[in-house]
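G., the chain you wanted modeled:
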Amino acid sequence: MTTNSFPQQQYPDDVAVVTLGDKTILLVGTAHISQQSTDLVREIIEQERPDAVCIELDAKRYAAL
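Predicted structure as C-alpha cells:
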C-alpha cells in the first residue's frame, strides 16, 4: 500500500485486518449472491486502492468462469 494509514476506515465485522510481517491484508467475507457483499468489496477496493486483489472460489464457481 502506498498510504501510511491502512485501512483508511473502519469496516463491518466481516472484514478482518491481518498483518504478516510488513504486509497488511484485508480479508473480506462475502456471500456470492449478495448485492451488499458486492458493494462492500467495491467500496473497499475503491477506498483502499490495494496493490493486489485475490479471490477464493470453489471448483464449481471457478469452472463457471
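The chain is about 30% helix and 20% strand.

Shout if anything looks off.
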